[in-house]
Amino acid sequence: MRAGVGLVDVVTRDAHVGPLLNRLPEAMVHGDDNDNGRAPSGLDALISEASAIVAGPGLGQGAWGRERLRAIFASGLPVVLDADALNLIAAGFVPAPANAVLTPHPGEAARLLQTAITDVQRDRFAAARAIALRYQAVVVLKGAGTIVSDPSGAVSLIDAGNPGMAVGGMGDVLSGVIGALLAQGLAQSDAAACGALLQSVAGDSAAEEGGERGLLPSDLMRWLRCHANPGGR
């Protein structure tokens, strides 16, 4: 929401509803413990009203996650995929939709390419291009020097960010920012590049304010809002 999206619906397990609402009361949180092997009709209703979807963080790789991912992909909506969504695609449980933005870290990238992490890190540009071509998707390869690529072979290097951002949860922020930009009408490649840059400069502003050591994903929130607004600081 700090990146400008007007409404966020979260679908999660029933046990997670209370903690999520306590942490983020602005979100619409929906409990879903349906384990009968198919996604519930309530999810279809939420999808029908959505402009874009972020899937993967906290999803899990069991039947619950797979069925919800299939329902999301069937919608044809722009989607950002991270974490377990990428693992499910890499394992062949679900095919990646052509309108996806994939946001792997080097380990997830290696699984998507069925290669070693060292191979990904040896030539990050080639790895990003290879994932984009194989899955016909826009790819944001996270790491020191985030790379954005698309199936045409075009690449962008995000020359921002800092070592303090190498903490758990920072990639979830990136996925959310890209999803917010997709929901506001940006094309996949533009949302991916702009989202990666926005998150990186927000991280730099947060580090400038309090230092890189101990930087948390939540420290970026006010800076995302500042940098998402023209002239904001």
Could you give the topology of this structure?
Layout: E1 9-12, H1 14-23, E2 28-31, H2 41-48, E3 53-55, H3 63-74, E4 79-81, H4 83-90, E5 100-102, H5 106-113, H6 117-122, H7 124-135, E6 138-141, E7 146-149, E8 155-158, H8 170-183, H9 188-210, H10 221-228
Parallel strand pairs: 1-2, 3-4, 4-5, 5-6
Antiparallel strand pairs: 6-7, 7-8
Summarize the structure.
With 233 residues, the chain is an alpha/beta fold. The protein is built from ten helices and eight strands.
What does this structure look like?
The protein has about 230 residues and is an alpha/beta fold. It has a single domain (about 50-230), classed as UDP-N-acetylmuramoyl-L-alanine:D-glutamate ligase, CATH 3.40.1190. Helix content is about 45%, strand content about 10%. It is built from 10 helices and 8 strands. It has helices at about 15-25, 40-50, 65-75, 85-90, 105-115, 115-120, 125-135, 170-185, 190-210, 220-230, and strands at about 10, 30, 55, 80, 100, 140, 145-150, 155-160. It has a 6-stranded mixed sheet, sandwiched between helices. It has a two-stranded parallel ribbon with strand order 1-2. Helix 5 packs across helix 7. The longest helix is centred in the C-terminal third of the chain and has 23 residues, at about 190-210. It starts with 8 loop residues before the first strand and ends in a 5-residue tail after the last helix. The model has no long low-confidence stretch (mean pLDDT about 95).
